[in-house]
Every structure is written in C-alpha cells, then in structure tokens.
Write a structure and sequence with these properties.
Elements (H helix, E strand, L loop, with lengths): L10 E5 L5 H10 L3 E5 L3 H9 L3 E2 L3 H5 L4 E4 L4 H9 L13 E4 L5 H13 L3 E4 L2 E2 L1 H7 L2 E6 L2 H11 L3 E8 L3 H29 L4 H8 L7 H5 L22 H17 L5 H11 L26
The structure holds nicotinamide-adenine-dinucleotide.
Nicotinamide-adenine-dinucleotide binds next to helix 4, strand 7 and helix 6.
Protein name: 3-hydroxyisobutyrate dehydrogenase
GO molecular function: 3-hydroxyisobutyrate dehydrogenase activity; NAD binding; NADP binding
GO biological process, one term: L-valine catabolic process
C-alpha cells in the first residue's frame, strides 16, 4: 500500500457516506489513511469531518490527490454519475491511482466504469461487499473483487482495513457477478424462511421451537439464523425491533432486479428470483422499503379468512 499521506497512510477519497460508507470511512481514518470525503448530503459528511477527514466539493475534488478512490453508492446510476460525470472522480483522479467501487451494481456498469477509468490512466476494481452495517463497523466484510490481480495486490492492505475475507473472483465485473449470485441466494432463502414461519404459524407451531429445530436441521440458512421474521424468536433480530435496522428491503429488490437483468444478458430464466423480486417490490408501496428484508413476511398472501 502506498504511504503518501500526511498521516503516513495512503491518500483516500471516499464517496458515499451512508449506512455502509460512513463506518467504512471511519475505519480508514482510524487505520491512518489521509481521507477526503464527498456525499451529496452534506449532513452525511459531518461525523467524518469531526473525526479528521477533509470535506471535498465534488467527487473530482475528493480524488484530486488520491492514491485510492472508493465509491459506496446506492446504485449504478449514482456510481456512473460520481465517477464518469462532469464533476466525477475520474476527472480529478491522478493517473496511476486506483478506483474501487464497493457498491452493489450490475456487471455492465462495472465494466463501463473500468473502461472509462483506463482511458484516464486509472485502474479500477469492482469490490462489492457482504456483511451489512455491523460488518462495516467491525471491519469483517467479505469483499468480492473483480479486476487485475496485480491491482488487487496493491490495494489489499487498504481493503484489509474493511474486510476479513478478500476474494479475487476474476476479471472486471466478476466481483459484482458473485455478489449478485449471493443476493439471489439470500433473497430467495429469506422468502423460504418466511413461508416456513407462515405455515407453522397457521398450524399452531411454537415458533421459538421451530427456530430451534430448523437451525440445526436441513432448513438452516443465514436468514433463518440472523433474522427469523416474527418477534419473540430472536431478541437481537430485526423483527423484535420493528424490522430496523438491517438490510433494507428496497436494496434487496434492487439487487434481485440487477441479477435478473444479468440473467437476461446471459439468456437465462431465474423463476424463483423473479418471484422473490415481485414480493420485495410490494414492500415499498406498503411503506416498508426501508425495513429489513425479513419484513417480506408481511406481503406473503393471506389466508382466505384474511389472517
Ligand atoms: P445508503 O443509501 O445508506 O447510502 C448511500 C449514500 O450515498 C448516501 O449518503 C447518499 O447521500 C450518497 N449519495 C447518493 N448519490 C450520491 C452521489 N452521486 N455522489 C455522492 N454521494 C451520493 O446506502 P448503503 O446502505 O450505504 O448501501 C451502499 C451500497 O452498498 C449499495 O449499493 C448497497 O446495495 C450495498 N450494500 C449495502 C449493505 C447494507 O447492509 N446496507 C450491505 C452490503 C452492500
């Protein structure tokens, strides 16, 4: 890792300081990075400025002296705007610097940004993450990386401030592709858990007992262990806290839409992903888009008597 900043660590521009970006940027500061930050919502920058980061006026301004530029933005449109737009990071980043997009986007966006980056002499990695905001806080994210192995080697020490497992998945777009496959599995599994709970509830099963049995049976899964979708089963789970905080259901809907569009590009039909996507899409209009994705149980079809 380059050591060119005033604090001895690399100069890093961090763009997008939301649920994930804010704790990740904090870890970089604590790890000795010289940090410039930008977010379109000025209030999102405040905690980082108080902790010693420099406020930038645009992604280009943040990137101007950077060794690494990290983006952690909601979707591909925002990533394109913040990197290739008129005041995007690529118009400021010095040749030889590395752009690392850690947002969940589609593989085509990762490849488009990498293409534009190369034209400016900037190397690019797609490096989406799994592990939710708790993993961002304690630096235990799983990071799935697409791009050159040599550029990943250069970036590994920086990424290790953020993640416990860093896996090179292949060429540009492959990190994003693996992340979307993970989202397909997690999104469908959550619906399966919700249906199992709904069936058990309707037939009068004790739901704590159900959780105890299934977490040590073949129905076990990460959604089942971390977020059983009804209150009173797991005190630390989102359902016991009005489905907050957690992984927002509107992000799960977005990720499944990205997976479905990647499937179309590959000439594939993914019927369960499609069905799950329809269920998550019903949460937004019901005012539940910001709730944890385990709230999907609330949009499962009702019994004929409405219960
Ligand atoms: P978020 O909505 O909480 O934060 C996004 C931030 O980006 C906001 O502060 C917003 O103001 C800022 N922003 C939007 N457009 C911008 C622009 N053009 N320039 C600069 N800043 C801009 O989102 P999040 O939950 O932090 O998720 C970020 C990404 O990480 C998403 O792609 C998401 O799918 C992925 N992800 C999220 C989680 C999670 O648990 N939340 C887990 C893994 C991956």
């Amino acid at each position: 890792m380059d050591t060119t900043g005033a604090g001895g660590g690399p100069r890093v521009a961090f763009i997008g300081l939301g649920t994930m970006g804010r704790p990740m940027a904090r870890r970089l500061l604590a790890g000795g990075c010289d940090l410039a930050v930008f977010d379109t919502a000025p209030a999102a920058m405040r905690p980082l400025l108080d902790a010693g980061a420099r406020a930038a006026a645009s992604p280009a301004d943040a990137a101007r002296r950077a060794d690494f530029v990290i983006t952690m933005l909601p979707d591909g449109r925002r990533v394109l705007e913040a990197t290739t737009g008129p005041t995007g990071a690529l118009s400021g980043a010095p040749p030889g610097s590395v752009l690392i997009d850690m947002s969940t986007v589609d593989p085509a966006t990762s490849r488009a940004v990498a293409f534009e980056a190369e034209r400016e002499g900037v190397r690019m990695l797609d490096a989406p993450v799994s592990g939710s905001s708790a993993g961002a806080v304690d630096g235990s994210l799983t990071i799935m990386v697409g791009g050159s192995a040599e550029v990943l080697d250069r970036s590994r020490r920086l990424l290790s401030l953020l993640g416990g497992k860093i896996v090179h998945c292949g060429a540009t777009g492959m990190g994003t592709t693996v992340k979307l496959a993970n989202q397909v599995m997690a999104g469908i599994s959550m619906v399966a858990v919700a249906e199992g709970f709904r069936l058990s509830q309707a037939l009068g099963v004790d739901l704590r007992l159900l959780h105890e049995v299934t977490t040590s049976s073949s129905g076990d899964s990460w959604p089942l262990r971390t977020r059983p979708p009804v209150p009173g089963v797991l005190a630390a789970g989102p359902a016991d806290h009005d489905f907050e905080p957690g992984f927002r259901s509107d992000l799960m809907r977005k990720d499944l839409e990205l997976a479905l569009s990647a499937a179309v590009d590959a000439g594939l039909d993914l019927p369960l992903t499609s069905a799950a996507r329809h269920l998550y899409a019903r949460l937004g209009p019901a005012g539940l888009g910001h709730k944890d994705f385990s709230a999907v149980i609330s949009v499962l079809p009702r019994r004929i008597d409405g219960t």
